[in-house]
Design a protein that fits this description.
With 132 residues, the chain is an alpha+beta fold. It contains 3 helices and 6 strands; from the N terminus they run H-E-E-H-E-E-E-H-E. The strands form 2 sheets. Strands 1-2-6 form a 3-stranded mixed sheet. A 3-stranded antiparallel sheet has the order 3-4-5.
Length: 132
């Protein structure tokens, strides 16, 4: 099966619509709502561990599993507050929340098989936002 066929299969299996996915440079990007659909559809459970939390920097570990398949993964998300993204990767003061969203998105997409096909989540990078 080709990469395109595998992606189409995953999109259909997870009930993703055009609103859930968009193209960005060399990648397909899944929106927050798309990640949530995949998480619910595949019965993915994610638990979090705060590794570091400071006023302008946070790292969160996400431990994800698909209980039906006994698949398990650990991955990280981070956020660093910076002015105009020059010195960081977010302009939000909600760095722990950004780190959590990034960790969760990575865990879900890795468990679901999207990552290996070059698909990322909108939350993972400010440059992945639809408006950019």
């Amino acid at each position: 099966m080709t990469k395109k066929e595998l992606l189409n299969k995953l999109f259909v299996e997870n009930n993703l619509t055009e609103e859930d996915v968009f193209s960005h440079q060399h990648y397909k990007i899944i929106t927050r709502s798309g990640v949530e659909k995949i998480m619910a559809n595949m019965k993915i459970y994610v638990a979090y561990e705060v590794i570091r939390s400071e006023p302008n920097f946070a790292v969160v570990k996400a431990k994800g599993e698909i209980t039906d398949d006994e698949k398990f993964i650990e991955t990280f998300g981070s956020a660093l507050k910076g002015d105009n993204y020059k010195d960081g990767n977010t302009n939000s003061w909600y760095v722990i929340e950004m780190a959590e969203k990034r960790a969760m998105s990575r865990a879900v997409l890795k468990l679901a098989g999207f990552y290996e096909l070059g698909v990322f989540a909108e939350d993972e990078s400010e440059s992945f936002k639809r408006s950019n």
